[in-house]
Amino acid sequence: MWKYLLVLAVLAVGILYATPNMYGRDPAIQISGTKGADADLSVLDQANKTLQTNNLPIKSAVLEEGQVLIRFKNVEDQLKAQDILRDTLSEDYISAINMSPAQPDWLKNIGANPMKLGLDLSGGVHFTMEVDMATAMGKALEQMEQDFKSDLRGEKLRYRTIRQVANSERIQVVMRSEEDKKAAERFLKNRYPGNVFVNDSSNDLAFFSSLSDLKKRELRDYAIKQNETIIRNRINQLGVAEPNVQRQGSERIIVQLPGVQDTARAKEILGATATLEFREVDERADTRTAAQGRVPAGSEVLYHKDGYPVVLKTRVILAGSHITGAQSGMDEYQRPQVSINLDSKGGAKMSAFTKRAVGKSMATVFIEYKPSGKVDAEGKALPPIKVEEVINVATIQSRLNNSFRITGIDNPAEAHNLSLLLRAGALVAPIQIVEERTVGPSLGQENIEAGMTAVVLGFAFVLAFMLMYYKGFGLVANLALAANLVMIIGVMSMISGATLTLPGIAGIVLTVGMAVDANVLIFERIREELADGRSPQQAVHHGYDSAFSTIFDANITTLIAAVILFSVGTGPIAGFAVTLAIGILTSMFTAIIGTRAVINAFIGGKRINKLSI
């Protein structure tokens, strides 16, 4: 009985989680605030009134988790609505078109969602983004320069200059005496084992330091991995459905946004790829003369988001990469604030600076890297254009550590936006789009239809063959094959990271043919047992038991190949491997346990003289 219940339970779960795929997807428009701000009821009302005024019918319009989702009956209405909303919505909001799952709420509430569709099936936008490794290396050298200065000051070792050598990846350290030079070199070698130190042949009191080849590789890997994670976080913060972000090669990241057809809006979604810095305000400077270009040495003029100039020291107190958490809220006077949490290294830097800077002003600088749109002779994108803006200036009230707060923010919405940006993280190095392409929804629909035709034809031919060749037992095998298809779809829908691609459909078609292999082995063994004179009951028992090891060995080798394909492959190859692996596991269950349960239900414990095989 427990085996019957197991088969029924597994089949029921498979059917339940495969059901959402029957409802399809609705053409939809998703409206969200820029840089992660929430949309509200006023945005929903404005969108509804605009569409009613233009006589555009909608299926539904709801506000969910800070985003407005408007569903349409067809793609034509969706595209017309997108053009209208783009012109009427303020710059504070982004509208993106996509295909939204249409399953009922009761299925959604139990986590039953349709399979995620890849770009080749749903249509969407594909970006190839290149990480500016030169800037990443430059920032690392700048940080090394600042660290050397603070470390030597902490050790009370006197130096003349510490600077980056022009057009090189080396830092030159010039000390005041031979004794200080030896002590400094010994101290820095112990503190920075990943660096290479060499003497300066032109100056007896100087030496050079640079990153080792291993450290450079680690820096490049870190820049790619960190940027990949942050891009994914920011896309998730903005609510783009089913994004795919993955590394390609040593300097590039692939971003796929299935269902999104508007490349301009998709670029806006990725436009939050920026970084933050905390810098000290140079209070010696006169902002009136600074605006004309006269600033003290070691300082520069940046402009506040409200338009007035702010003179900042060029030395960076803390980069945004040290921020581990941020939360918006209100201070004791009910003014907007953002609470910041730092990692241990960032906390130590902030503590060391603010210890001697109480009463001084510190600025939060928002830095955005905009693509230059130009390439060099080799076709490689030129470095992006750096745009800096002061978003906040605050007075340091006391010594800060791993936690502090930013005040002086204009309104709660701005505080909320800033906290979202900080939580998403700051990019280690700027990135820019070097390739973009769009797969239209009509092409995606053609791919789905072609794939479904292949599945249906393969399924039909296999059903016909099994029914004609194995008769009643062939009918049982066909039932198992149908259950196998349902379970593949159900499992694909349950796994959050699984995406159905066109090669994935090929994997399902292959699985349809492979799924009956186990039953062919079992049925042929039953025929052999019957030919040897065994009774029908004995023939079925020995047929299943004897064929199991052969079936297991054959499927486990294919499963190993699928796992290796998934491990080393990306994109279409991984999609094929996922469906193949799931199909192997489900087919073994349905072909061995499922068919035996059905056959046993009909002939178990009965006197039978002949089998329909």
Shape field: elongated
CATH topology of the largest domain: Gyrase A, domain 2
Low-confidence stretches: none
User: How many structurally independent domains?
Assistant: 4
Class by SSE composition: alpha+beta
Domain SecD export protein N-terminal TM: 1-96
Protein name: Protein translocase subunit SecD
Subcellular location: Cell membrane
Main location: membrane
Name a few traits of the molecule.
613 residues, alpha+beta, Alpha-Beta Plaits, Gyrase A, domain 2, 4 domains, five-stranded antiparallel sheet, four-stranded antiparallel sheet, 16 helices, 49% helix, elongated, SecDF_P1_head, transport, cell membrane, SecD/SecF_arch_bac
Structural commentary:
- The protein is α+β, with helices and mostly antiparallel strands and 613 residues long.
- Helix content is 49%, strand content 24%.
- The protein has 4 domains: 26-102, ACT domain (Alpha-Beta Plaits), CATH 3.30.70; 134-213, Gyrase A, domain 2 (2-Layer Sandwich); 216-437, 2-Layer Sandwich (Gyrase A, domain 2), CATH 3.30.1360.200; 440-603, Multidrug efflux transporter AcrB transmembrane fold (Up-down Bundle).
- The protein has helices spanning 2-18, 41-53, 75-88, 105-109, 119-122, 133-154, 178-191, 213-237, 263-270, 287-290, 344-355, 412-424, 441-494, 502-531, 536-568, 572-603; strands at 25-33, 60-64, 67-71, 93-101, 116-117, 124-131, 159-164, 170-175, 195-199, 206-211, 244-248, 252-258, 274-281, 299-303, 309-319, 323-330, 336-342, 361-370, 385-395, 403-406, 431-439, 499-500.
- The strands form 6 sheets. The protein has a 5-stranded antiparallel sheet.
- Strand 11 and strand 12 (252-258) form a beta hairpin.
- The longest helix has 54 residues, at 441-494.
- It is elongated.
- The two termini are 26 Å apart.
- 37% of the residues are buried.
- The chain crosses the membrane at residues 450-470, 475-495, 501-523, 544-567, 573-599.
- Residues 431-592 form the Protein export membrane protein SecD/SecF C-terminal domain.
- Belongs to the SecD/SecF family. SecD subfamily.
